[in-house]
Design brief:
Metal Binding Protein, Guanine Nucleotide Exchange Factor, Chain A; mainly beta; three-stranded antiparallel beta sheet; seven-stranded mixed beta sheet; 38% strand
């Protein structure tokens, strides 16, 4: 599936080809902190299928407890998360679903690091809802 993505302010734009069924959620504490939410949703794409059309993301290198280094790309102007990838010579990018135009068509199919999942975030369907503005 061909997708289009951009940051909130429009400084970064890209396109890619993804396999929607590979989308997933990550509940690890790093993803919670880096996203500012209870989990992070992403879909992988091969490096050769990812093309920046505009701008250049800022890169933060996160070092895991294992010592593995991961590049966390985001817009330096508005802070929108764009992707994560191996810090050197990436063969794959994990695109952040929130920045994709087609995000509603790519529901996550898997979950990882569920031991870190916040229990309250697993059951939001019963919360009071306000009308869309």
């Amino acid at each position: 599936m061909k997708i289009e993505g951009k940051c909130h302010c429009g400084a970064i734009a890209y396109e890619a080809i993804v396999e929607p069924d590979a989308a997933g959620l990550c509940h690890c504490t790093d993803c919670q902190t880096l996203s500012g939410s209870p989990f992070r949703a992403s879909v992988p794409t091969k490096a050769e299928h990812f093309h920046l059309l505009q701008g250049q993301p800022k890169i933060y290198i996160k070092t895991a407890e294992s010592g593995a280094k991961r590049a966390q790309a985001f817009c330096a102007d508005c802070g929108t998360p764009i992707y994560s990838a191996a810090s050197e010579h990436p063969t794959q990018y994990n695109l952040r679903l929130g920045a994709l135009k087609q995000r509603a068509q790519i529901p996550p199919k898997t979950q990882a690091w569920c031991g870190s999942a916040l229990p309250w975030a697993q059951h939001v369907e019963g919360l009071p809802r306000s009308p869309d503005d």
